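Note to self: keep these together.
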Amino acid sequence: MTIRSLHGKFVFGVCRFCGIENGKEIYPTWFGLTSQFPDGYVSSRLREFSAFYSNRLSYAGVAELLRRVCGDSVLSGAGIREIVAGKASEINRAIGKEVADLLSDRKPSVFPVINAEVAVYDRKTEETLIFDDGIQVKKQKTTRKKAADRPSENSLL
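Structure:
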């Protein structure tokens, strides 16, 4: 088994428990027998380093940076993408759970009531907050025309 860390990779072998089971040779690992490293054999510092630079470089660029820093190719671009996507998925689940808890009936609502009809000219209205995206578009188009489908400026004349 190969362990990957920020300082390179090294082989961690266990031969004491090797044997034959159902006609096949088995080579259990010490970490498998002791239930260590359930998330894989990549150190947490290497994951953090990869995720940090993935925000600034391409995955292949991060893999090359790791090769230069560690002196060996410890992770590929696809491996780095898996690390980043896994962490993003974990964060997404946590945020989704938090939002679901906020919107559930168990807790009182912390969001203000949204009024669809606004009486702008009513003198009795104390204050009105209007949230806008700044683009002034009511909704996005369902499909976009390609440049070849749009009429050119010359054809309009």
